[in-house]
Amino acid sequence: MNSTAYLLVDNCGPEIRHRSGLTAPDKFIYLAPVDGVPTVFFDAREFGIQKEKVKQLENGVVIKALEPYMAKIKKQPAGPLVATLLVILKEYKIDTLLISASLSYSLAHELEAAGKKLVVYSYEKEREHKTRQELNHIIETQRVNERAFVLAWNILKGSKIRKNRLIYRDRVLTSERLKSIIRKFFLEHGLDCPDGIIIASGSQTSRPHDMGMGPLLPNECIIIDIFPRSEKTGFFADMTRTFVKGEPSEKIKSLFTAVQAVQKKVADSVEIGNPCAQVHQLTVGAFAALGHPSSYERGFMHGTGHSLGLGIHEGPYLNAYDDRKVEPGMVFTIEPGLYYPDIGGVRIEDIVLFTEAGEKKKITCFDQPYFIP
Asked: Which in 19, 34, 36, 297 has the greatest CB count within 10 A?
């Protein structure tokens, strides 16, 4: 008889965190026979503390120690983790494994060599619809993120323009310095930034994901895109604002006018039942009506937005290729932008969510001026 189980081998990724509620410094095993009891396996280093966590979670996950299985390992070519896993699979009579696409090639190879059938399963799809608690976790992280933006805004406001530099507290204000201040703020408030922080200025802003480096420039666009994660819950927030410290040119002002109008139009228009690709097409059409092209070279260069949760980029995606529809429990960023090599870039990003009851909420709360004298 062919028995099938879900298998994850990781330490803190969104898939194993969502399924088990646990994270650890080292990789552990999550095994859930289809229609069976999900079980996590830890060695003595983690077993005690993880047992307490499992007890507190009360999510139906069972914890077992690895040592009894390790004691049954016979000499074989597989590494210790694989060898132990094979002993577990034999005891559970598992032949087919529903694995993540992120499972390491070496582990997958070892499992197949041992005669196991591997089937890639979309664990991310399980996270498309957020519970009320999960939505609240995102909101909690976003509230701290907004405080970081207030901090950044105040630093820009308190900076002086000297020649072609911003001076803050008698030192040149650089991308690196502002990132360091923000990281320290997050550290003090239980957040981290595992995927970095974007603080770019001048020509850097014409490249949507240029992380930014060097002095921040006056009278030019400064894109700040921060996507922190709560260390406690694992949930991300995401927000982008573009500022100009000093006097923006008329061309820069025109970009702000266009992006603000399109961002508001899309955020106000998106509703349950909308196909994701249709939402994106609304963005493309709105920019086209204002004379801005959509291409990979200039104008509007990327998707309209994405979901987020235990991962910073999760599906569904508001782009030209996603045929899924907006449904209750989903959360999206709305982040149109315009990018021109000779002007710079402007992006504005807010979070819109739909509760399980279908109520739409824009959860981003930040209304400081984009132009800072």
From this structure: 19
Counting Cβ atoms within 10 Å, is residue 313 exposed (0-12), middle (13-18) or buried (19+)? middle
- Please tell me the distance from the alpha carbon of residue 71 to that of residue 172, in angstroms, as a whole number: 60
Short-list 320, 287, 302, 305, CA closest to 353? 305
- pLDDT at 282 exceeding the cut of 70: yes
The CB density around residue 60, as the number of other CB atoms within 10 Å, is 10
Burial category of 278 from C-beta neighbours within 10 Å (exposed 0-12, middle 13-18, buried 19 and up)? middle
Q: Could you give the residue ranges of the DSSP H alpha helices within 25-93? A: 44-57, 67-70, 80-92
Task: Please give the average per-residue pLDDT across 63-71, as a whole number.
Answer: 94
Angle between helices 250-269 and 276-289 (to 10 degrees): 150
Q: Which helix (H) or strand (E) holds 36?
A: none
C-alpha to C-alpha distance for 185 and 271, rounded to whole angstroms: 35
Domains in the chain, please, with CATH?
Answer: 4-127 (3.40.350.10), 132-372 (3.90.230.10)
Secondary element (H or E) of residue 161: strand 160-162
Pairing of strands 165-168, 160-162: antiparallel
Long-range (24+ apart) CB contacts under 8 A made by 120-126 are 121/6, 123/8, 123/15, 123/18, 123/19, 124/14, 124/15, 124/311, 124/314, 124/315, 125/315, 126/18, 126/19
| DSSP structure class, residue 324 | -
Which amino acid is located at 14 in the chain? P
| Distant-in-sequence, close-in-space partners of 166: CB < 8 Å, separation ≥ 6 | 156, 159, 160, 172, 173, 215, 216, 217, 218, 245
Residue 230: name the closest of 352, 134, 140 by CA. 140
Pairing of strands 350-354, 360-362: antiparallel
Q: Work out the number of other CB atoms within 10 angstroms of the CB of residue 250.
A: 6
- Yes or no: say if 46 and 53 are a contact pair by the CB < 8 Å rule: no
Q: Report whether pLDDT(336) > 60.
A: yes
Residue 347 CA: distances (Å) to CA of 133, 141, 161, 261, 372:
29, 21, 24, 12, 16
Which three-class secondary structure state does DSSP give residue 334? Answer: strand
